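Below is the record:
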Amino acid sequence: MKKLNLLLLFILPFGLFAQNVIQVKVSGMVFNTNVDSVYISQNFGSYYKNYASTALDKKGNFQFKVELPNPDYYYLRIGTENVHLILKNNSDIKVYGDGAKLKDFCNFVGSDESKAMNDFSHITEKWNAKSDSALTAIKLDPTREQAINDYMTQEFYKFNSELQGFIGANANSPALILALANMNAEQDMKAYENVLNQLYSVFAQSPTVQMFYNNFAQIKKKIDDANFLSPGKMAPDFTELKIDRKKTLKLSDLRGQIVLIDFWASWCGPCRRENPNVVQTYEKYQKDGFTIVSVSLDTDAEKWKNAIEQDHLSWPNHVSDLGGWNSKVAKLYQVNSVPFTVLIDREGHVIKTNLRGPALEEELKRIFGH
């Protein structure tokens, strides 16, 4: 499990997490093996830390009754093979397997989550092997790169389907450790966070789970810090010409109100279809201190004015420099598609972005209480 081993490096040093000592029993029988001892261990990338060992008798029977530092994810090591174990206080797990074919013949009593992890680990091992083989094949023959990439794309879809099936079948289970090890937090933060929250709700005492949780918090903070419109950030102030082309509006002059900055244009079909929802929202909440600043990306003043009248956009805060996609305010807010909205609080901090329709209604209902 390459990905998980790399992640577990971050658990070091051992004193990083407070210990929550547990008592466990692990026993069973593994026949057809050429080793005389088995170990309960954890993998830290470049080495294993062994917590306990015991001998196998002639039939392959073994038994541990040991104290471990924390409820966590462990390995039962049998020679070069690893059996995945979730161990908690008072766990009593029995493992039965064929040492010569452990991937195919390994049964568990007393730990469905360990069983699920072992079954899925074989799928991930096959996927990793295919990935490694593909990279090797491309290096050997670069002319095959496109064909190999096309094939691996299809294989990835198959693996991802199996991953989603594993997640669905093991909701709120410590087995989801193996799911997180095969997910990329930065590529799909919402899906990753959903699995992480399930895992944390049932196995927060695990240092491995704490490691995932802390790493994700750092990734999320890094992304939020890079996003100048993340919740809590101060919305960039601006001053722009109003529709009469004489008066100006300064965003910060609207402090004390909940403000929706709505980027739109008369030529934007989705914007025009969304406008009735925006009007309805304004009419419902304007008396509570809600207002809208419509920033148009139009270049034609008449079309802009006509659209305001046709769509009954009754709020007074319509601004534009008629620069189209070169609009100074749109560039300031890094707008690359419309409609786009930014909801800000009474002090000018971003609440959320890209709220439309029911989502905007729900957020304002939360703010105003009705």
The longest helix spans residues 112-140. The two ends are 51 Å apart (CA to CA).
